[in-house]
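User: For my dataset I need records formatted as: sequence, then structure tokens, nothing else. Please produce one.
Assistant:
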Amino acid sequence: MSTTEERASHSARTPVHKGERIADWADERLGIYNFRFLIRKVFPDHWSFMFGEIALYSFIVLILTGIWLTMFFDPSMSETVYQGSHVPLQGIPMSQAYASTLHISFDVRGGLLIRQLHHWSALIMIGALCIHTLRHFLTGSFRRPREVNWLIGFVMLVLVTLEGFVGYSLPDDLLSGTGLRIAEGVTLAIPVVGTYLTMFLFGGEYPSDQIIPRFYSIHILLIPGILVALVSIHLIYVFYHKHTQFRGPGRTENNVVGQPLMPVYTAKAGGFFFLVFGLLALLAGIAQINPVWTYGPYRSDQISQGSQPDWYMGFLEGALRAMPAWEFTVPGGYTVNLGVLIPAVILPTVMMMVIALWPFLEAWVTGDKREHHLLDRPRDHPTRTAFACSFVALYLVLFFGGANDVLAERFHLSLNQITWSVRIGIFLVPAVTYIVTRRICLGLQLRDRDKLLHGRETGKIKRLPHGEFVEVHAPLDAAQGFTLLDREIREVLPAPAAQHDGVPNPRSRKEMLRHRLSRWLYGGQVAKPTPQELRQALEHLAHAPGATASLNGHASSNGHASSNGHASSNGHAASNGHASSNGHPHNGRPAAVGEREPDQELH
């Protein structure tokens, strides 16, 4: 055998495309081809998932516009006399921070557009994060293994709110200065450490010449850096844990049904980014926000009537206005101001702790150690949904309470009557909202049960031979019937025995607490139809064409899917991405090893 290496002549080789050479060069140095399992990762589709993307894209716009604004903003409290192009303020003493804000708004080309784009992006981001958090809470996606990611999202929501308040305070106008004065009062109301925290934040007695430079550093460095790190960790956890999905045919706790990251989801996400960017630019161009030139520079001896903070701080303003001016003095001469401590410190802390610790409370009550990748419909958990709606109702009552002066002026009402309505509504409105929401959820459960047993209403009226008029019902299709049957109903924990064989139960109090919480969370729900009831329903609907196939062909009586459904344990799609709408290869043959995993679904 010859050991001489034979090579094809240069002219006999197949020419390599330039793009392929570039791809090979990049893969040799970066190993991109080894990450093909990431670019083929499957993501489910649902309209409610877009709120997280809106928050992410708004954050990107915030970073871009914030970098631009730092080139022109001067975070200095040194005094100057304004001589810019805005005539009404010429000759007025003001800080360099306020003067540079006016300079950006009136003298820098496109400055006002970028300022308003930055402000609108902050408002939209916080709003999207609130709805995103609410969606996770209502659907139960915070359960194992996503408790840590829930806490990360909660911390991001708190940090973004603080970031918005700090950035809102930087222009040093009369409106933002009023907000800073309230923040200083809230900090002072904290027992024992309030004065130390005030000196640390403000750098001296209020008003201090250090507050704007300190807030500027926090606004452009500290909080954004933490947010970038948390967003990265949050997205990594989403990739690692797989994306949650709603229940439906072929969807189990071990698979992901949807579109691959490349090229489908990337194209959709990229287009959606430009839609969000365009909408924010449109708002910045036509909807004026935070016109600081109408407020004037901040002076500690002035305040304007009707001053309102940005919407995300409205609940805190309302709580402060609704709380009576209660205070008492403890031995030693220390005054505890309950009129500020309760509404501005204790109430927000309790609200935040309830949101942060709810996943752990629910897991402790149920003792559930399973992993959950399927989402619940809000109606399937009436207590959780009712609690979330009552929480939102409390927030809205406080929000409108923060505008009591504006409401009194615009609608010619008594300010005192509005304030007392808010005080009563804080206790009454959430309770009524809780009761009504829970009854609505139970009513929807009853309607779903009725659909399974009697079919859907067609709107057609039929007259029977003996003269009676009845409405014709049609059987549900397979997908809808399966979704309604796949509802998970958790059993209420039994009451513990006080003693066994004369020996007292040492854990009776703890188990009784769990029993009562379990009864509160999961008691009183509408049961799913039994197999016997479903068989009777099939017999009743047998005269309808395709009734048996619709109800019995794709879902069993216990609500479980057939065993031939395809699942995905890791949510990664095939490298070639070829699949039909039902998850089988187009040619009808089983997929070859390496082409696609047998436990994933594309549609």
